[in-house]
From TrEMBL:
Protein name, UniProt field: Probable serine hydrolase isoform X1
A Pfam family this chain is assigned to: Abhydrolase_1
Keyword Hydrolase belongs to the record: yes
Species for this entry: Drosophila mauritiana (Fruit fly)
InterPro entries per UniProt: AB_hydrolase_1, AB_hydrolase_fold, AB_hydrolase_sf
Swiss-Prot/TrEMBL keywords: Hydrolase
GO MF annotation list: hydrolase activity
Taxonomy of the source species: Eukaryota, Metazoa, Ecdysozoa, Arthropoda, Hexapoda
Superkingdom, taxonomy of origin: Eukaryota
Family from the record: Belongs to the AB hydrolase superfamily.
Amino acid sequence: MTSNSEGRGNPNEPHEQEPMDVRIDMPWGYVVGRWYGNRQVRPILALHGWLDNLGTWDKLLPLLPKHLGVLCIDLPGHGYSSKLPEGIAYHFVDYLCVILRVMEEYGWQKVSLMAHSMSAMLCFVFASLYPHRTDMLVSIDIVKTRYRKPASQIDYLRTNIEGYMVEDERFANAKRQEPPAYTYTELEQVLHKGSEYSVELENCRHILERNISRSTKFPAKFFFSRDGRCKYYTEFHTSPPFAAELARTIKNVPYCVIKGSESNFIDEQSDEVIAILRENNPHFELHEVQGTHHVHLNNAQGVAAVINPFILHHRPPHLENWTVDAADEALPEVVKEFKLAVEDSENVKRRKRKSNL
């Protein structure tokens, strides 16, 4: 499906609308999403965390300002979106390209982002590569990309490769053999414990709805339908100096970070990036809200109390084409090189995109 939400649409169309399911074609298949609220103006693009799906926003969405819609998507391999072909591993850059492809689909020159966990890392990098195309960013409980010391990184790579090989074989066999099945109650416990108790038990249903399928062999049971290979996706690791350079490019982007008080995902390793953002970006905010890593799901009211004033200030009603005009300054060389690598992977010239990359 294709629509241009930059336009003003029908002025008589109410802002309160039933959610609309969307499907965006990708070279390997499609990404699915659900557009909540106003479709007359460009929405916020909401991206979920690792192994989650768009259900992660269920409790927060009703509490957000009504003048902006929210387009929530399932990233590749998650929820109802297509899985990558057999033998193809998931990579951080693939997810970066999904943002660009969604923007291209709808003709957006700029994007407003709301992201949790893995996607908060993703959007930190996106905003650093494309500050002139990012007019707002809300990040839940992560502020930067991950860094591991060299010895730890070697172990991580080995474990990740071996884990991926096992899951890729399972993916191939799943066409002939159904995965292990569990009762719904058992799956709630698996998710609750697997999230290290970050997702409260009563909220697991919001994630499970798009992550499981009913067993054909045992009709009273279900199995995980997300792509197991996503557990071993290739992260984008940055050394502290590189992360600092990335942060320095985000100079004029409204950027709100919310930390869960019971989570350690934002710790002392984030201090340098936070200090740079505070010094260089007058639109940067950092808040702490009571809750775990899934604070937006377990304490939606507390998170909305922070996000809503931020949205109303930086994308207020009736200013549909509002943006922060970022200074047209050259990116640091190391960031520029990575940006070019992302663009090459998309083969921008061949596809002759009209977006101003």
